[in-house]
Amino acid sequence: MSEGVYTTGLVDYWIHKFARKLATAFPKYQADFEMKWSAWRNAISTSSDSSTWSGVPQFQELLYLGPKIVPLVLAKMDGSDATAGVFLYNKIETDLAYRIEADDLDITAQVDKIRHKNFIRNRAVRNALLDWEDHCDMAGRFSSSTLAFTLCEDYFELVKFGVCIVPQLMLQYGKLRHDAHRRHPIFGHEALHEVIWGYPCEFEEIIIDTQCKDWVEWFENEDYIQAPHYKRKQDRPPRFPPLSDEEDSE
Q1: Number of domains, the chain
Q2: Dmax of the chain from CA atoms?
Q3: What confidence tens digit (pLDDT) does each residue in 174-227 have?
Q4: DSSP character for 79?
Q5: Burial classification of residue 163, based on how many CB atoms lie within 10 Å of its CB (0-12 exposed, 13-18 middle, 19 or more buried)
Q6: Is residue 1, in this structure, part of any structural domain at all?
Q7: Three-state secondary structure call for residue 109
């Protein structure tokens, strides 16, 4: 994936714009994060030793939200919140290639590098999502079967990005749900389930609005580990590492 050359101003603008879109679409998601972020920042306000920052219970509350809050954390990396933002980001980012823990870089350089890498990744995710939507639009003219939408190259290209697609997919999933002119069912829950649990739902008959409501409820109000979880319909190995049984039982 080419990283390209983009100005810091452009990248920062996109980071904050995306966070605002999420906050507008999912206000409870934003409010829950802000409450837990403020509680953590207050708890560590008297300590400049970052090695102690993860030891307070307020930090665990943020960790439980998992990678779905990465866009909001990226937007927090400004001013006096920058160091705390980088610290939290490196704990919830699941892809090691996107973590930045470089003692030889000052905090501004770390923020710039993290945001730039995420900007590039999210542009690629956006393009993959648009390609899958085009496929769904065409496939929906001929079939309403789940497999017509998930057993295709465009779907595989999207879900290979892993859990980083969750915020963008939730935005698009919610928007398409209210599209009165859509010509096909919305199968965003299949991709969400696959990147989180390691396999798609593969329901042949589903209640679209019920599925969407479940995912929105999770995204806005629940911990990452509480994502909707359905039994596998087909016996095939997962394409992604699923959440462990131990995590699932928590």
Answers
A1: 2
A2: 62
A3: 665 555 445 444 678 889 999 999 988 765 445 666 777 888 899 999 999 999
A4: G
A5: buried
A6: no
A7: helix
